[in-house]
Design a protein that fits this description.
single chain, 348 residues, alpha/beta, Rossmann fold, 2 domains, seven-stranded parallel β-sheet, 12 helices, 30% helix, 14% strand
């Protein structure tokens, strides 16, 4: 039996083909550690992880009940994703357990995808393709003659984290004016990126493209509702590559159906996968993708290697690098080792 047990629910995350934990074990080889799969039901996993030293969280919801039942020896909960909505971070914080994610692994891919949706919706790519295939060649140009060019338009970003900044960098060469709303980011940071700090009302009312990047946190669930879509231009295009639950989907559907806004490009939905009766599936003014913005050939290896590094640091008794509840670190037995600022909580 290994010295350290890393407990994880059985099965792969993100439905990525291929099993095994070779990538996750790369930084654990010098440690006497093993990743052991357990039950995928809550009570079964609680019983299974009573001798665990760390948790590799995937596949199931890590509720307050589950977290409260973790043994005191657990040094951290490690996620292989940017989003941490599958873990009750508040409960983990109350227990003094660090929770880590992969904040910088998929930034470029998601920003690319957001720009793809922006361009595809603006130039009506799906409609244009359909016209050609249906022998309606001559209808394509008249349809686009009603649409302004991108240069000179305004892009509004809701939240200004890593992905939004990467989107701003990509959008700048198209000649757009960029606004951003984020009450948690210093305005000087936005200015340094060539972005105008704005209120939410300014972003909604002035933008021709509105790109949603708010993370999955309880305080932003249902952040955009009917009142917000009514503030948008009737020609506006709404893009969401963040999280589905940050938007009240019934309000978005109503806005698209009643032409409060013109179009939407959505990689995320309130319920995933959507039910067959979801009106978005039959709307001609919507382009959808299956929560795939982060996907690329480096997706699985990169996030698994990040998980490996975080697990190794925890088992070595060190602070992890990507702690989403850093206030707990100073009160653990883990020691700070970073020689420079990591710009996260007490690390800064």
């Amino acid at each position: 039996m290994a010295k350290f047990k890393i407990a994880t629910p059985a099965g792969v995350s993100f439905s990525v083909a291929g099993g095994g934990y070779d990538d996750e074990m790369k930084d654990l080889k010098h440690l006497d550690a093993e990743i052991v799969e357990g039950p995928t039901d809550e009570d079964g996993f609680i019983a299974f992880c009573q001798d665990a030293d760390a948790i590799y969280a995937k596949g199931i919801r890590f509720s307050k009940k589950l977290i409260d039942a973790l043994p005191a020896r657990v040094r951290g909960i490690v996620l292989g994703s940017v989003g941490v909505d599958s873990v009750d971070v508040k409960a983990a914080t109350e227990r003094g357990i660090p929770v880590t994610n992969c904040p910088d692994t998929f930034i470029e891919e998601v920003a690319d995808h957001a720009m793809m949706l922006l361009l595809a919706t603006h130039r009506r790519a799906i409609e244009q393709d359909k016209m050609v295939r249906e022998g309606r060649w001559r209808e394509g140009r008249p349809a686009l003659l009603q649409i302004p060019r991108i240069m000179g338009q305004t892009l509004g970003l809701i939240s200004f984290g890593h992905v939004a900044r990467a989107v701003a960098k990509r959008a700048k060469p198209f000649g757009v004016r960029i606004l951003a709303f984020d009450p948690f980011i210093e305005e000087l940071v936005m200015v340094e990126h060539g972005v105008i700090p704005s209120t939410l009302e300014e972003v909604l009312s002035q933008s021709d493209f509105i790109s949603m990047h708010a993370p999955a946190r309880p305080e932003v669930e249902g952040m955009l509702g009917e009142e917000h879509f009514r503030q948008m231009k009737p020609t506006a295009i709404f893009i969401n590559t963040g999280r589905g639950p940050t938007v009240q989907e019934t309000a978005l559907i109503k806005a698209l159906d009643e032409k409060w806004i013109a179009y939407a490009g959505l990689d995320v939905l309130e319920q995933e996968p959507p039910g067959n009766n979801n009106p978005l599936l039959s709307m001609n003014n919507v382009i959808l993708s299956a929560h795939t913005a982060s996907a690329s050939s480096r997706f699985d290896p990169a996030r698994k290697r990040h998980v490996s590094r975080e697990l190794a640091l925890l088992l070595e008794g060190k602070w992890p690098m990507s702690c989403v509840n850093p206030a707990v670190l100073q009160n653990t037995k883990l020691r700070r080792w970073q020689p420079v600022s990591m710009e996260r909580g007490p690390n800064s």
